[in-house]
Structures are given as C-alpha cells and as structure tokens.
Amino acid sequence: MPIADNILVISGMLAVAVIAAGLVRRVPLPYTVLLVVVGMLLGGLARKVDVLAPLLAFRLTPDLVLYVFLPVLIFESAFNLNARQLIKDLAPILVLAVLALLVSTAIIGLGLWAVAGVGLVSALLFGALISATDPVAVVALFRELGVSQRLTVLVEGESLLNDATAIVLFKILLAIALGGVLTWTQVTQGLVDFPVVFLGGALVGVAIGIGASEIVRRAQADLTALLVMTFVMAYAAFALAEVLHASGVVAVTCAALSFAAISVARASQATLTEIRHVWEVAAMICNSLLFLLMGLTLHLPSLLDNAGIIAAAIALMLLGRAIPLYALLPVTIRGFRLPRVSRGEQHVMWWGGLRGGLAIAIALSIPEALPERVLIQQLALGAVLFTLLVNAPSIRPLIRRLGLDRMTDEERAELRDGLDEGRQAAEDALERFRRLDLVSRRVQRHVRGELREVLAGDGPEVAKPQALLHAHRRAVHGEFETLAALHEQGVIGAYVFLDMRDTLMRDRESPVLDAGVQNAAASPFARLELALIRRLREHDWAAGLLARYQDLRLGQRLQRDMAGVLTAHAALEALRGDAQLAQGDRERLADVYRERLARRIGRIEAIRREFPEYLRAYERRLWERVALLSARARAESARQHGALGAKGYARIVQRIEAALARLPSIARNPPAPRPHDLVSAVPLFSGLREATLEGLAQRAETVGFLVNDTVIAEGDKGDALYIVLRGRLRAERKNAQGEAVLLGRLGEDDFFGETALLGEHLRQATVTAETPCTLLRLARADVLALGENEPEVLRRLEEARAARAALAARAETGIDA
User: Fold this and answer.
1) Same domain, 632 and 572
2) Which residues pair with 741 in a beta bridge?
3) Using 50, 70 and 90 to split pLDDT, how confident is the model at 350?
4) What pLDDT is stored for residue 667 in this prediction?
C-alpha cells in the first residue's frame, strides 16, 4: 500500500478509537473490549465493502506488537506503578508471575495433551503463551470503581513480570519443539537460561534507567528533551536486552522503575505530570491500534470450526489460573507475613486474568515449520476472545457483588472532607461575584440551596478510632505538600526529599493509638548511612572519604531538620482546622508533632552552638540559592503566560545560572583551628618539638560525626587515635551481664582510642556522639613513627592506657566512674 493510504488508514482507526472512547460511557463494556468488538465489525464490513478493503492489509504481526506496542505499554504501566507497594508485595507478585505461570503452563499443556491429543511440547507451548495476563481493561475498571491500590498493584505487577516469563518460557519450548526431541540437556539448559535471561534484563534496564537519568541531569535537559529521553529509554532497553538474549520486558520494566525513582526527586511535580500525560496518550494510541487490530485479525467462522477444542483450552486456561492462584498466593502471604488478600480479591484476580495482544503476537510468531502452528493460533485467538467478551464485561458486576467497591471509613471521611471543601469553595466564589454586583442575593441564596443538596455530606459519622486515624493522615498530607514545595523551591535536595518522603509514607501507614502516633523505624536511607559509616570508620584509606561524607551528612541533617520544622508546623495547622476531631484527641495528636518540632529545633540549636560559623555560612548559601531558584521559576512562569519575551527570559536565566554557579558547595567542612594548634593543645602531645608536631598535624584527618553516630565500637578492629575538637561524646563498655556501663564523657581536647595505638587492635569501649562533633583522627602508623623520635609519646600513651583500664575496672565492679 502507498504510504498515504497507510497514514489514512491509521488516522481512520484512531478516529474510530476516539468515537469508541465516547461511546464507552453508554455501553457496559470496557474501552479495550469495545475496540475489539468494533474491530471485528470493521473486519466483517471490509470483506464485503470495497472501500474498507485497505483495512484488511493491516495485520497484527509479532514484530509490531513486540517492538512497537509492547515497550510503550510496559514503560507507561511501570512508570505509573506504585513502586513502594510493588516492593512490599514483591514476593507474591513474583510467585504469581513466575511460579504460578509455570504451574499454569503445565496444567494447560498436560490437559490439552491428555484430552485433545495435541503434541506435548506444542500443548506446553500454547500453555506458556496463553498464561500471560493483560490487565489493561481490568486496571482501568479498578480505577473507575475505586478498588484498593494494593489489588491494582498485585494485578498490574503480576502482568508486567509474567509477560517476561511467558516470552522466555515460550522461546525455550519453541526451540525444543523445533528440535523435535525433548532431552534432559535441553531441560537443564532451559532451567539455566531462565534466571539468566531475567537477571540480564533487569541489569540492562537498571543500567539504562540510571544512565538516562544522569544524562538528563548533566545536560540540564528541558521538558521536551526529557520526554524524548523516556522514549529512547523504553525502546533502547527493549532492543538492547533482546540483542543480548535477555528479557526485553524485564529491561523496560526495570528502566521505567529506576528512572521513576530518580526523577521523582529531581524533577518538579509539574514536569512529572507532563511526562505521565504524554505517556498516557502514547499508551492510548498503542492500545487503541492494538485492540482494533486484534478485532480485525479475529475471524469467527474459522474459530467455530474448532469450537470443541477451543472450549477445552478455555476451561484448562481458567483451571490453570485458579489452582496456583488459590494455592500459592495465601501460602506466600502467610510465609512473608504480609497483609491478607481476601477471598473476594482472589476471585477478582482469577476472573480478571484477561489475555490480550501479547498472546496473539506470540502465537503469530510461531514459524511454519511447526506442524501444529495453525491449531495453536486458533486456540490462542479463541481464548483471548473469550476473556475479552465474557470475563471483561462481567468484572464490574463481580466487583460490586463482592463489595470491593464499597467505601471504607477512611474513604467516607475523605468524601465528607472533599464535599465540605468543595461547598466552601463554591460559596466563596459566589460571594466574590456578589460583591461585584454580578449575582443578586436571591440568586445567591438559590444556588447555595442547590449546592447544599448536591454537596451534602452523606453516610454515618466516622467512629472515634477512624476519626483519629483520618486526622493523622490529613496531618501527614499537609506534611507531604509542604515537603514537595520545599523540594520545588530548592530548600532540600533530592536525597533528603526521598528520605523524608519515605519516612512520611511509613508514618502515614503506622497505627494511631490514644497516646499518639507510634514512632516509625529507621528509614532505609538512615540504615544505609549507618552501614556505610561502619564500613569506613576504622580504615585509614577511607579517612578522607569518611570526612567528606560526614560533612555532606551534616548539611543534609540541617536540611532535614529545617524541613522538619516546617512540615511539623503544617501538620499542626491541619490539626487546628479539623473540626471533626474531639478536642482531647486533637491535643494528644498535636503533642506528638510538638515533640517532633522541639526535637528538630533542638538539633538545629546544637549545630548552632557547636558550629556557629558553619551554620551562618550554610544559611547564607542555602537561602541565596532558594531566592535565585524562586526568581528563575517566576521568570519561567512569566514566559509561559506571555508576560516576558524570549530575549528577556534568556538574559534573566543567564544571570541566575551564573550566580548559582558561583555559589560554593552547600555542604562544606566546618571551620576549625589549624591541626598543629589542636595537636599541641592535647596533653598527650604537649611539650613536643615544633617540627614533630607540624609533621604529625599534616598527616591528621579532620572528621565529623552527628548525634548518636558511633565513632568506635567495642570489639571492632581499629588502629587510630581520636582527639575531640568540638562536641561531646560518651564512652561505654559492656559488663559481664552484657549491659552497657558508662565509663565517662569526653569533651574538647580529650582523646580516646589510645589502646589501639599500643597494639591492641580490638576496641575496648564504644564511643558515641552526644552532640554534633569534630574529631582529629591520627593513624597508628603515624603516631608510632612519631614515637621513634620522641620516646616521651610512647610513655604518655602507656600511662593513658593504664589509667583508662583502671577506670574500666572500677566501672565493671560498680564503682561510680
């Protein structure tokens, strides 16, 4: 066909899809199912009407589905997926996507082989391709009916990964089928290839996702370039993985998840919204063409010729979905101690396991050399048609029958809040128009009456526990909004934003007791930081790296606490405006936030006391950067609204970028006296020759620690001496009963770790920072080299070690240390 005809046909199909999107509100069918029906009708007309004959030239080919449609659909789904919920339910999702699919393949394949006489390998081949689910229609219905997010993630996450499982398993079985003989060598090789292909796809996807994010960041790409990069990423991940014989589906999924995780912290909410909108359009185009072409491909007369065996295949498909779902999912949930998946949700997951274009594409890719190729294709078309015309339309009544669309107490409270806020906003708008004499009082009263009827709060009052929970979540929502605004304004960086967002998410999900909100466990970011410090703190080669990292942590701690002060105020403001919560409950919940507020202010004041010069410099740089970013945002807004021309905008941005480039790094080393002065001020080194002190000072490393950081731990290996420059620390040691006993507190000019310098590499005590502190770290090799020229140093070290040992002995025997 000429290219003009191709463009005309594609345009016509998209126009039909738009009309179908308007009709779907009036018919009891999901959008994608309606497209299949329309496609079947168009296919029937095209065979009889010459004008529509060009439609028959368009066929659903494997390459079109796998290399054009699939990357877009997978990337869009993965990018919008709730990654946090996906990680929480990763175990059941993997069980459903991998193990359940393998069981389903076996049930379908063995059943067809036994019942219909289909060859075993060919039957397994059909089982593999028909076991992959397509959630497009079901997920759209879930969102429309308000089904729980967890069920949506389970269904969508399973589909993303079982597509990959089905493709990998199909390729392995196809190679066996074309070989003609099933051998143990082939089975063993397939078992080895399966995880390798999965892992390879994941590595390719993560590498491309992170690499693309870095390219966009370093190039300072605008929205257009960012959008182009997302499409490059989707297709490049799929193609590269396929070239490397890895899973393209897994690669695209991991690329989208990696890019989404990073872009959330780096891009503005407006940018992310634009990206999602563009990908929704791309996904709609691909889905529309895909399901219309599916309808055009289906030919009912040929399917009716094989109605008996197709019916058997459908029954086995439903059985193969049911057995692993009902057997494996509850066991996995209990084994990993996850929240229960109700029986009703399992019913929806079973009946909602639709099959779509991927199954047809895989079936059409079977080479002609396979004798049962046509039969497998007919079975696939029949099974897909059944799920689309029977399962899909009945999902809505099933969800309502099971009560999965009923509102929870929290959702009813949210509805009441939304109605109240909407009514108040509408009345405020009316009042503004009345003041301008655009609305008479009579009309205003009439409209208010209508508003009260339309936006009246319905349902019973929320019970006290649910009211407290809802108030807490409203407060957390206020914190979220403030946190996002601070990130947009540049007050906090990407890492701090992700860390605090994760903490708020866990706080939102924590139970609320009469005493308030339970304290959340340490975030993954905090655990990662502490693990990194443990790895680095006792290694001489890592001293400089640790010093720079701790300086960075100090700046990030300031960002957290400054942002925490503002988010706590936002939560308190939200609680003050909550009229539904009893006064006593409001005060108990507010006390939790007041305590957090006081704790964060206290940490800022501790840094102000210990590092006043650093804090002043930090604040100047931070707020100058925030002011410049605000000016740039204002210029961008003025340009978008036509109030600022291109030339003026370019010059403003150029000045702001130059000013930003001149700003020093926000996280910089806290100012401190010269190491020579500090070393000479310590009694251990007082009176030594000037040249010796200078040489030792040049080798010393300055390192900082934050509150509750462990500097050295009892039982760890170490060979460095620490001198306290600023801050306070406590030294503890475990007694015979394993209890921590306080040995003493350390302040400026005190030193510890001297036993390691005398050859005792195991630390004898644990030293923890009580305030932000700065220490001077002297490695054993440097101090002992000094001792060769200055025997007095070794004598003083020995005296200090003996005194510390005596103090420890007194503490263990109960004598006050």
Assistant:
1) no
2) 733
3) very high
4) 46
Q: Note whether 778 and 727 are same-domain residues.
A: yes
Same domain (yes/no): 47, 155: yes
Provide φ and ψ at 767, rounded to 5°. -115, 125
Q: Choose the final residue of a domain: 445, 473, 506.
A: 445
Tokens standing for residue 409:
């107490």
The mean of the pLDDT values for the chain is: 83
CB count in 10 Å sphere of residue 509: 12
| pLDDT tens digit sequence for 448-488 | 888 888 877 655 555 566 777 888 888 998 999 999 888 88
More confident residue, 100 or 496: 100
In a domain, 455, yes or no: no
pLDDT score at 735: 87
Tell me the C-alpha distance between 626 and 660, whole Å.
10
Look at 186-195, 441-450, 649-658 and tell me which has the smallest mean pLDDT: 186-195
Rounded CA separation 373/177 (Å): 11
pLDDT of residue 619: 87
Strand order in the sheet with 720-726: 701-705, 773-779, 720-726, 751-752
The domain spanning residue 80 has which CATH number?
1.20.1530.20
Q: Are residues 652 and 530 in the same domain?
A: no
Domain match, 28 and 100 both: yes
Rounded Cα distance, 536 and 364, in Å = 56
CA distance 100 to 368: 30
Task: Answer for the pair 516, 471: CB distance below 8 angstroms, yes or no.
Answer: no
Supply the range of the domain harboring residue 716.
Answer: 675-812
The H or E element containing residue 362 is helix 357-364
Same domain, yes or no: 561 and 651: no
In a domain, 453, yes or no: no
- Do 18 and 35 form a contact (C-beta atoms < 8 A)? no
**Would you say 131 and 101 are in contact if contact means Cβ atoms under 8 Å apart?**
yes
For position 310, what pLDDT does the model report?
Answer: 93
How many domains is the chain built from? 5
Place of tokens 């040049």: 698
pLDDT at residue 1, as a whole number: 65
Q: Are 262 and 209 in contact (CB under 8 A)?
A: yes
Q: Is residue 668 part of a domain?
A: no
Residue 817 lies in a domain: no
For residues 234 and 343, membership in a common domain is answered with: yes
808 contacts 733 by C-beta, under 8 angstroms: yes
